[in-house]
């Protein structure tokens, strides 16, 4: 990947694989738009154990994010399974380390969005998405959901909200992402990519 190429950072935590699958669908949507790329990153689990026990590089899947991934992105898609109507602790822990970016205004005027997965249909999808946008607003990011011009929002029988893509994983967390949920993930990625390119150009024009 060229450093000059703008990218959408797709930053997620996934326990059972559904959120990771959604992240890949968003990435496909991003990369269907010429001139921008997707960068998939995850975060390590957290535990009450004080010593570091996780490897520095995950055995599979996306590598762990660092602050530079966030600092240099042109847009951010934030993904997490629902934990009692909120984002999972590992993702919140990572966001809590971004004070230096906030102090420098590194994310101001960059578009952002969120996506989530729950076990049950009414398991807190919308509250999770709404609470995930709060730190993004504190960073000065511009939040972008999914408009109802995406007709899957009207047809879906499981996941999908105007606040961001969502998925119902089932009681055993083994239900695959379905056709409508995949389409909404890709639509969200496409929209974020288009906004990222437009606002990237705007920021470049404003730079003295």
Structural account:
α5 (125-138) links the parallel β5 (111-118) and β6. Strands 1, 2, 3, 4, 5, 6 and 7 form a seven-stranded mixed sheet that branches. The protein has 208 residues and is of the alpha/beta class. The chain has helices at residues 18-31, 67-71, 89-95, 99-104, 125-138, 152-155, 179-206; strands at 7-12, 37-42, 75-83, 86-87, 111-118, 142-143, 166-168. The chain is globular. The longest helix is centred in the last third of the chain and has 28 residues, at 179-206.
- Helicity level, as a percent range? 25-40%
What's the story with the biggest beta sheet? 7 strands, mixed
CATH class call: Alpha Beta
Gyration radius over CA: 16 Å
What is the CATH topology? Rossmann fold
Beginning-to-end CA distance, first to last residue = 26 Å
CATH superfamily: Flavodoxin domain
Structural class, from secondary structure content?
Answer: alpha/beta
Total separate domains = 1
Protein name: NAD(P)H quinone oxidoreductase
Organism: Vreelandella aquamarina
Family: Belongs to the WrbA family.
Cofactor: FMN
